[in-house]
Amino acid sequence: MRNILIIGAGRSSSSLIKYLLDKSSLENLHITIGDVSLESAQSKINNHKNATAIQLDVFNAEERANAIQKADIVISMLPASFHIEVAKDCITYGKHMVTASYISNEMKALDEEAKAKGLVFMNEIGLDPGIDHMSAMQIIDRIKEQGGKMLLFESFCGGLVAPESDTNLWNYKFTWNPRNVVLAGQGGASMFIQEGTYKYIPYHKLFRRTEFLTVNGSGRFEAYANRDSLKYRSIYGLEDIKTMYRGTIRKVGFSRAWNVFVQLGMTDDTYTIEDSENMSYRDFTNLFLAYSPSDSVELKFRSYLKIDQDDLMWDKFVELDIFNPNKKVGLKNATPAQILQKILMDSWTLEKEDKDMIVMHHIFGYEYKEDKYQIESSMVIKGDDQTYTAMAKTVGLPVAMATVRILNGEITTPGVQLPIRKEVYEPILKELEDYGINFVEKEVPYLGYNPESIKG
Question: Is the pLDDT at 451 greater than 50, yes or no?
Fold first, then answer.
């Protein structure tokens, strides 16, 4: 049997593992799942005859090398920064590798060695990055093949809570790594190009420069800019495009309220707070406000941020219980971002019956025979339950489908890559439709740059 090693059995691996187990007899597969928690790995395979669970510490070089040597292909579902040691072992032992993460500089540096050994190192084959690349390239390639010239490409994606599970004023719950949500947008200015003009948004302005979207029967959303949209011009073969913008989707009103945390400094992860363990939520909030012998924390908060008492935004912060003097932070030497994450997890963790939702929306503007056209392509996916979430399906299924195709010799181009070639995206997008993951495409009047949507 052909052995697939999956390293990491976290929440996002459930649909990936189920797909491979379901295909294991037909495709002659044995799936080995390695995780630092043997119990977690065992829970994912449920005693399946074609699967083995092993305890695997990715930082133990001997354990890691032993597991990789026995595999025909390796899937890393670890945090992005941990992939590189796995990748180096895959080079050493001549194994193909698949991840859902962005290609790091360290991973890119392995390209020549991977090509020399004929190894496929497929990255960015999850949701975002992943399905976004494939669905975008399918339409971009089609427009080009028909003789069209691309003028505009905007792409948006967000992990949200399904409407039936939307029970808080923020219209948001954590469907992915909470830490990534708290730190979103940090690390440099967000950059994009709009009608030939370069735009740079610093972090402290990011959440007040939003674009608004209406997505195919699913309502109105807002989006804030991703960090670097400009690099996708060369990746997608759109070097001369006038508008290139990628953003993260939230329900309308989220960004305005989130901006309060940014302005106060609560999302800062660069220093630790003294005696954070014994601090109350109210103490934490008060840290960022001026001293007053008479004014309450609530009054100082509203006054500093110019929030009226009857503003819905005020109710959002009250709902999070950030003024509670009795709730303790309980984290030693914590950064503001870590404490904020702890507070938000009280309110934004999905309940057992909750369902998540993924929304992806692309806008393509192009010119053909001197006329201008615009296409909108949208995907809205709901999770089944807390195991097979929309996030787990849309991240895990493309990873699994690419893995089987590499094993079967259907994806053969070697090297460190992302899924922008037809040999990759066409069959995977087609198969994803069998799992209810599909796009609704429609032609709309060409709008070009909408000055109402991005200020300045």
Answer: no
One DSSP character per residue, 55-113 reads E--TT-HHHHHHHHHT-SEEEE-S-GGGHHHHHHHHHHHT-EEEESSPPPHHHHTTHHH
Q: How does residue 138 score in pLDDT terms, banded at 50, 70 and 90?
A: very high
Q: Report, as an integer, the average pLDDT of 213-218.
A: 83
Rounded Cα distance, 221 and 210, in Å: 10
Which runs of consecutive H residues, i.e. helices, occur in 204-348? Answer: 232-235, 254-264, 281-287, 297-305, 312-319, 336-348
Phi and psi of 77, rounded to 5°? -110, 25
Q: Can you tell me the distance from the alpha carbon of 245 to that of 236, in angstroms, rounded to the nearest whole number?
A: 13
Where along the chain do its domains lie? 2-122, 131-257+352-389+438-445, 282-329
> Are 150 and 365 contacting, i.e. CB atoms less than 8 angstroms apart?
yes
Q: What is the pTM of this model?
A: 0.91
Architecture of domain 2-122: 3-Layer(aba) Sandwich (3.40)
| Three-state SS at 305 | helix
DSSP secondary structure code for residue 451 in this structure:
T
Taking the CA atoms of residue 117, residue 120, residue 121 and residue 122 in that order, the dihedral angle to the nearest 10 degrees is 170
Q: Are 230 and 280 within 8 A, CB to CB?
A: no
- For residue 450, give every residue at least 6 positions away whose Cβ sits within 8 Å of its Cβ, in sequence order, or none: none
Instruction: Enter the CATH code of domain 131-257+352-389+438-445.
Output: 3.30.360.10
CA dihedral 15, 17, 22, 27 (to 10 degrees): 130
Extended strands (E) in 105-148: 120-122
pLDDT digit string, tens, across residues 140-157: 999 999 999 999 999 999
Q: Are 94 and 366 in contact (CB under 8 A)?
A: no
The number of CA neighbours under 13 Å toward the Cβ of 11 is: 14
- Answer for the pair 76, 5: CB distance below 8 angstroms, yes or no: no
Report residue 294 as tokens. 């008479």
